[in-house]
Amino acid sequence: MNVVFAVKQYISKMIEDSGPGMKVLLMDKETTGIVSMVYTQSEILQKEVYLFERIDSQNREIMKHLKAICFLRPTKENVDYMIQELRRPKYTIYFIYFSNVISKSDVKSLAEADEQEVVAEVQQVITKEYELFEFRRTEVPPLLLILDRCDDAITPLLNQWTYQAMVHELLGINNNRIDLSRVPGISKDLREVVLSAENDEFYANNMYLNFAEIGSNIKNLMEDFQKKKPKEQQKLESIADMKAFVENYPQFKKMSGTVSKHVTVVGELSRLVSERNLLEVSEVEQELACQNDHSSALQNIKRLLQNPKVTEFDAA
């Protein structure tokens, strides 16, 4: 079960149900993150969604030529914003979708505010799937154990060494975005980068691989890029050359962005691994988890605690 694909299908159905014509997508802070996780701007533009607005924005213009698709959480604040919107509608028609159950009293309040009868539809779109919770039923009921992480004595002790896990643990990622603004010497274009398995083939193929393999694959990616680069920069001596350049330039530019992004991310991960002495820290962690030589482990821990490179976070 692909949860990202399921949510993408829900949003796609919302847009398609509104019919043909230019549309605006009205969202709140949380649903903005949901949409950005599953759709790129270019993808959603193909569905005639030309404007993206926050429901709490006070500076929205009146655009009666647009249909409004509202994707909101059913909070009191959002319902109040929606009531204000319906009393002075800025768009020709409204399709309202809530991400969870909305109370009957709130639906009544929305109906009372819709004096101009601009609301075409109100629905609850709850992202849950049967197969997500129960699949391939057997005669023997399965046993699900839900444990607090406090009961997991091993995993919190170990540093992670796969690409996706290292990004989460060392850099932090929110809504597929990584803040690299604090990286020494970072260029303006790379202060924030997006890592999405849906739209980044290199990341999708490497996100679960070990860090050593990532370094090798980054090198291969760089070599492929260098092979294509001279061809793209050759002299344009004929109409055919110009046509070939125009056709290949978007692909070349995309590859250039992919190379720059992953070289920067992997480079920063390598810097942090070295700066925080994580290879040695991880070796001691593995010994603690897999071996019973407590005397040797104690000496190694003492040595690490005395190392100024080892941070309090890694020592804890």
Summary?
Belongs to the STXBP/unc-18/SEC1 family. This protein is of the alpha/beta class.
What can you tell me about this protein's structure?
Belongs to the STXBP/unc-18/SEC1 family. It is a peripheral membrane protein. It holds the Pfam family Sec1. The chain has 316 residues and is of the alpha/beta class. The protein folds into three domains: 3-130, 3-Layer(aba) Sandwich (Rossmann fold), CATH 3.40.50.2060; 150-275, Sec1/Munc18 (SM) protein, domain 3a (Syntaxin Binding Protein 1, Chain A, domain 2), CATH 3.90.830.10; 279-315, no CATH class. It contains 13 helices and seven strands. The strands form two sheets. It has a five-stranded parallel sheet with strand order 2-1-3-4-5. Helix 5 (104-113) links the parallel strand 4 (93-98) and strand 5 (119-124). The radius of gyration is 26 Å and the shape is globular. The mean pLDDT is 83.
Q: What is the fold's blueprint, element by element?
A:
Layout: H1 3-17, E1 23-27, H2 29-38, H3 41-45, E2 49-54, E3 67-72, H4 76-87, E4 93-98, H5 104-113, E5 119-124, H6 130-133, H7 163-171, E6 177-179, E7 192-194, H8 201-206, H9 211-232, H10 239-275, H11 278-290, H12 294-305, H13 312-315
Parallel strand pairs: 1-2, 1-3, 3-4, 4-5
Antiparallel strand pairs: 6-7
Structural class: alpha/beta
The helix/strand series, from N terminus to C terminus, equals: HEHHEEHEHEHHEEHHHHHH
Cα shape: globular
For the largest sheet, list the strands in their spatial order: 2-1-3-4-5
Care to count the β-strands? Answer: 7
Share of helical residues? 40-55%
Distance between the termini: 36 Å
CATH architecture of the largest domain: 3-Layer(aba) Sandwich
Strand content: 5-15%
Indicate the CATH topology of the largest domain: Rossmann fold
Question: Mean of the pLDDT scores?
Answer: 83
Task: Provide the domain count.
Answer: 3
Radius of gyration: 26 Å
Q: What would CATH call the homologous superfamily of the largest domain?
A: Sec1/Munc18 (SM) protein, domain 1
Biggest pleated-sheet summary = 5 strands, parallel
Poorly predicted runs: none
Number of helices: 13
**CATH first level of the largest domain: which class?**
Alpha Beta
Subcellular location: Endomembrane system
Protein name: Vacuolar protein sorting-associated protein 45
Main location: membrane
InterPro entries: Sec-1-like_dom1, Sec-1-like_dom3a, Sec1-like, Sec1-like_sf
